[in-house]
Amino acid sequence: MKRQKIFVVILGLLLAGAGCGFETFLAAATGDDHPAPDGGILPDPEPAIITGSIPASAIAGLDTLDMHFFSGAGVEQSPKVSVTDETFEAAFEAGLRLVGLTVRAERGTVAYRAMVPVAEPGQSTSAGDFDGIDNRETAACLLVQSKASASGRGLTSYPADSLQTALDELQALSSSGPVQTFYNMVQAVTACSDCARGTALRFRDPVISSSGQVLQSPLHPDFIFANPIDYDGDATAEDTTLDFDVALLAALEAFEFKACFCDEEDYFAACCEDTAAFAPTSDPAEIARACGSDESGRKIIRSFFAVDFNDGLKDGSCLAIDRFRWTDPQAGASMFFVGGIIESDSPIWDPDIDAKLGAWAPNTIPMYDDGSHGDESAGDGVWTISFVLPTGLRMGYKYTWGLTGQQWGGTEEWPGNRRLLEIEDVNGDHVVARYDHYGDEATNKDNDNTLPPAMGGTGLVTWDTKTSDGDFITRERPRDTDNDCNLDSWWTPSNLPPLTTSCP
Description:
Largest sheet: 4 strands, mixed
Shape: elongated
């Protein structure tokens, strides 16, 4: 029955001239242009280790429950934490790379924090300096978080070296001027030994507008109201965050925290001229292809594709997905990406980019579930791959589950259709990220789409198709994180930063 359905679909595509192209279904994939994996055994991924200490004067009798770890995307991580006296060690999920990690020590109203620019798998990194995580580390972390917030991007959107440079600059500025003033205020707040009234932590994540307004003070207003402190040294106890926020803004003006992104008009030309600047996070040849040889001024952006292959997922119609409706559950299979430029619709056509996407040769471009190549968690059933692509590109793609070099039959998520994607940074995080459910027939699938009319479905997805909420189906979108059929939050991969170049 399955073969009959596939034959009907292929015949329809031949007559209509649509789909992936009839030759795609019949041609043998030689693998000459897309070398297959060598079949070797990859070493087991190792965890990133974070170590540090919390002085007993800050939190006496440190416990594992006092320690919290947040990724740059604001997601709390759950490493294995051990504590000996004042020191701690946190081992994260094997293979997981974290950029802009915030380490917090919290008990009662007490709250200390430190910034770790990057936690690399297989490496041990110290949080805080030789004095441990104290008031100085807390002040520096709050300033870097504030600077990132004012830029409209999270810490994940910055390269690790930019975060480290900011911390180093703050260390140099902390002995004088407005940065020292802010450090002194943080020290006054942390030093209060009897400030235990209420339940609010002393510090929280700051929110700063692009115009320089404090929308959410890092000093918790409930805490300072319940525990007035003379934090500015004027011999009068303050019970609001007003003076603290003024000092914060002055300190932010005193240091530079900047990354020059390749998708910003002022910098993409420099990115294309200096491809070596992206190593080792990107292939210079790949960037050169994305930039193109013409003078069109293409902006380039890192583009991520992730597909969830776990059982029990729901589609865009809130119906259960049958992963193996069209796909054979064969032993030894793994996930592959296949796609190509939609030449008739895309304002950008480049045969090298088309080849990089697979040129519709199935089971040749492997995806990753080992914590590398943009994959965030090894072995979680979510497979990931990333490319450097020019914005505005219109492409088709799909996922296949099979063996290297296999053809379409029994390996593709559904035959005769493709997913559509226009490379545009919709949410402004300087990456394009698409998180899909394998076999979802109510998503950005172009033909025979089962998205209900009430949700914007028409059975045929075009570049202008929108959901009932007004979102373009064929662009990056938030993902459904709890499988309740509602889009919850944007996915910004945390282990590969956006493309940047050296700032002038």
